[in-house]
Amino acid sequence: MKSQLKQDAPLLKEAIRVGAVYIQQRGAGKFEPSDSMTIKVEAIYRLLVQDKLIIPLPQDKEDGSGMKHKLALWIEKQLPADHPLKKS
Asked: Whole-model pTM?
């Protein structure tokens, strides 16, 4: 059973914010206001995997919740130690 971070939802929100900037700076596109969270999560996840910034999930675990959790873990590692989202 994988461990869920206590603050997956706020971490995911931050991961999408940072990931959207990363996608744009990387020249890989830009999100539109009408893009769903599902589209954003999958696009950010796939680009981070392609750029070898995260390890891909096994194919049978590559679903929405797995990708969201992976993004939450990714951003949690990027945050400074004293960031409010790192407090449990």
From this structure: 0.86
